[in-house]
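Tutorial, part two.
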Amino acid sequence: MVIFLSSLLCAALIVLLTTALKTRRIARELQDAVRRNRCMLVNEPTSMLKRLGFDGLIKETNGLIVRYRGYADVESGLSNQLEALLGSIQEAVIIFNDQHVIEFVNDSAQRLFQRTRALKGARVETALRSTSLLEVLKAYREDHNPKRQEVSVERLGEVLWFEVSCVAVCGVSGQGTESTLLVLHDITRLKGLEEVRRDFVANVSHELRTPLTIIKGFAETLVEDHATLPEETRARFLDKIVNNAQRLHLLVEDLLVLSRLESNPERIQTSMQSLQQLLEEMLEPYKSRLNAQEQSIKLDFDERVGEFAFDRFRIQQVFDNLIENAFRYAPDFTLLTVSARYDELKNKVLCTVTDDGPGIPQKDIPHIFERFYRVDKGRSRESGGTGLGLSIIKHIVQQHGGSVSVESEAGQGAKFYFSLPYKQSQAEESSSPAG
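Running the prediction step on this input gives:
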C-alpha cells in the first residue's frame, strides 16, 4: 500500500512538473510573440491548452497583435505620407523637441543649412546661427502664440533672410511629448530686390531733384527780378533752364527704355540683318563731329560675319551709347575704333568700341554697368549723361543672349566688349563663316 501511494505521488509530481514546464514554455513563447509583434503558433493540442487555461489567452493575444499591427501600418503610412509631404515642399521645415534637439528636417532645410552633415540630432542653435530666430522661439515658448516674423540667418559668411512661423505639434519621439514645427520661407531674393528698389528710388529722386532745383531757382529769379536783370543774364538763365529741362527729358526717356527692357524682354525683335551695313551707316554722322586733323574713327569689320539675327534698332542703340560715351567722357581721343569679329569657338560675334582717352580707374570697373553709377560724377552731369546708358546696353545685349565687359586702365583708354550669338539663316548654317 505504501509502495502504491509512493508511486502515485511520484506520478502526480511528474505530471505537475511536466505541466509547469509546459506552462513556462508557453508563457515564454507568448511573451516572445508579443515582443516580436508576431502571432504565436501553438504546437500543443487544444485540449491541453484548454486544461492549462491558455487557449483563450493565446487567441486574444494573437487578436491584439493583429489589430496592433494594423494600427501600426496605418500610423506608419500616415507618418511616411507626412514625411513625404513635408519633404517635397520648397520651404525649409524643421521639427525639434523641448531640448531644441532636431528630430526631423526636410530636404530643403538640409540643402540650405548643412549639405555635408546631417542636421537631425543637432541642436537648433548649432544648425541655425541666428539671434533673431532664437528670440522668436523664446517668445513662442513663453506665450505659445503662433509666430510669423522675419529673421536673418548667417550661413558661410553670407546673411539669408527668412519669414519664419512656428507651432506646437505632437512629439516625434513618443506619446505625451510635444515638439515645435518650424517653417522657414526664404525671402533673401525679395530682400535684395527691395534694397535695389529703395536704392533705385533714392537715385532717381536725387537725379530728378538736381535739375528741378536748378530750373525752379532760375525760373523764380527770372519772374521776381525780370525788370532789373540784364538781357545777357536773362539769356544765360534761360539757357540753364533749357539745358536742365533737356537733361530731365533724357533721364525720363532712359528710365522708360530701361523699364521696358526689364519688364518686356519679348520686345526684342530680331531679324536677319547686315551688321556691317548698320555700322557703316551709323558711323557716317559721327565723322562730322571729329576734329579733322587730330581725330579719326576706324571701322574694323570681319568679312566672315555675314547676315545674322539681331534687333537692328536696339543694337544701333548699343553702339550709339558706347560711341557717345567716348565723345562725352574722352573728348580728346585721337582714334576711336569700332570692330566686329567672329569667334569661331563660341559661334558669336564679338563687338568692341575702343578709344585712347583717359581710361577708367580699376576701382570703378566692377560698377561701370550699374544704374546711375558715374566714374566722375560732376563731369558726367555737366556733359549731360544720365548714368543709365551702360545699364541699358547691358540689358539689350543680355536679352539678345550675349554679355558685356570692359577693359581699361587710367590713362590707357577704354575698350568695351559685347557679344551677340551668331544666329544664321538656314542657308548660311550649311557653311560656317570660317569655312
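The first strand starts at residue 92 and ends at 96. In part three we will examine how such features are distributed along the chain.
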